[in-house]
Specification:
This protein is of the alpha/beta class and about 300 residues long. It has 15 helices and eleven strands.
Length: about 300
């Protein structure tokens, strides 16, 4: 399968791929096949309001968005699913891969992988929610690459649209390397459509994965969509964009997001706290000097001056 024929999804990235980014990315580059929201979670006994605002935002009007939820028990699962149903959502992705200790240690994200009793209850709920479609995003395990084998029968019994696999154990977070042997083993044993996620940095990376795993349902791109927002468009066009093309579109993307935050937030500090993370993975594109100027900017005036030096 060539890369321009593949399903390409944008991964949920906390603090980055919120509605303004998704909307502007779809406008500037053409929409990915799907965008997954940063995970919704329970706060103070109910779904967090800001998470729900992201899911129901009018900025979702130009792209296909799927909310992702993170949960530690069936009560949290039920509360989140209930809120999403009430909001009109009919597709949900289940986070079984978040590697960050504050979540894992409380049994959420990758922590769910060791909770067979919870997974069995989730399977029952999924079977009962016939008007909703579910998918799962998972890792091979928390600290060992074979932990998934203990739960694969439960996963296979779930009524799922697909399973997205990121082949790193949670203990590595995003360090080290993906383990393609682990992915191959999971790919062969999962009885659902499988989506690959992890270290897709270029068109060649995507092509190599597609060639290695015939029948793969698609790929999910995470940090690479932040470092190279043009990557999906490049895959579809079958060519690498020039530096000039990349920077021109990058500035368009930034302008849309910056305008949104400038008109919806109050004061330089709030705006800068939301827009500065946009550049976190882009130093390779804009240069160290400019990246440093952006990071050090303490006012909108200084920030805009730094951005104006790009290109």
């Amino acid at each position: 399968m060539s890369t321009h024929e593949m399903n390409v999804y944008v991964a949920p990235l906390q603090g980055f791929t919120e509605a303004p980014f998704r909307h502007c990315h779809a406008s500037v580059y053409g929409a990915a096949d799907r965008y997954y929201t940063p995970f919704l979670r329970i706060g103070h006994g109910e779904p967090r309001h800001r998470d729900m605002r992201d899911v129901t935002s009018q900025l979702n009007d130009n792209h296909d968005v799927v909310p992702q939820i993170i949960f530690r028990d069936i009560d949290e699962f039920d509360l989140l699913i209930g809120a999403l149903k009430e909001a009109g959502c009919r597709r949900v992705d289940l986070n079984m891969g978040c590697p960050f200790p504050p979540q894992v240690n409380k049994g959420r994200g990758a922590g769910v992988l060791r909770n067979k009793a919870l997974l069995e209850k989730v399977a029952e709920r999924i079977d009962a929610e016939r008007d909703m479609t579910f998918s799962v995003k998972m890792r091979p395990g928390i600290s060992a690459y074979d932990e998934w084998r203990d739960i694969v029968d439960i996963i296979n019994a779930m009524r799922l649209e697909h399973v997205t696999v990121h082949p790193r154990v949670a203990a590595l977070r995003y360090g080290g390397s993906v383990d393609m042997d682990a992915f191959a083993a999971m790919f062969s044993q999962l009885q659902h459509r499988v989506v690959y996620n992890g270290d897709i940095m270029s068109r060649d990376d995507a092509a190599r994965i597609a060639d290695s795993f015939p029948g793969l349902d698609g790929i999910m791109i995470g940090r690479s969509v932040l470092a190279r927002p043009s990557l999906i468009a490049e895959m579809r066009e079958g060519r690498d964009w020039s530096s000039e093309e990349r920077v021109d579109h990058l500035l368009q993307l930034h302008a849309g997001i910056f305008q949104h935050y400038s008109t919806t937030l109050c004061g330089d500090a709030q705006v800068l706290s939301k827009i500065k993370p946009f550049w976190e993975y882009l130093e390779w594109e804009i240069g160290h000097k400019t990246a440093k100027m952006i990071k050090k900017a303490t006012s909108i005036e200084k920030y805009e001056k730094a951005v104006a030096s790009i290109g």
